[in-house]
Amino acid sequence: AELCEFSPTRSQRAKWALEEWIDYTSNIINLPGGQHLSDTYLDIHPLGAVPVLKTSSYTIFESVAIVLQLIDEHPEK
Question: Whole-number mean pLDDT of the chain?
């Protein structure tokens, strides 16, 4: 799984859950530098926001949605 994030934003909520539950890589998105407005990033998240979680099966936005998805996938945690 790969998390696109920037601190301090609500992406820290998703990062915390990922740290507790699964292996992932982090991709810091340079919001002040406008990286979130690049065509490459807008292909990942059409609104240019963080966080985004990409897995081999899906891409999901919004920190609470990411945490809820992880809870559904890992109820034992």
Answer: 94
Report which residue type is found at 47.
L
The pair of structure tokens assigned to 17 is 């859950």
d(CA 74, CA 8): 26
Alpha carbon distance 66, 51 (integer Å): 9
Look at residues 76, 43, 8 and name the one whose alpha carbon lies nearest to residue 63.
8
Q: Is the pLDDT confidence value at 77 over 90?
A: no
Radius of gyration of the chain (CA): 12
* pLDDT, tens only, 7-27: 889 999 999 999 999 999 999
Q: Are 16 and 5 in contact (CB under 8 A)?
A: no
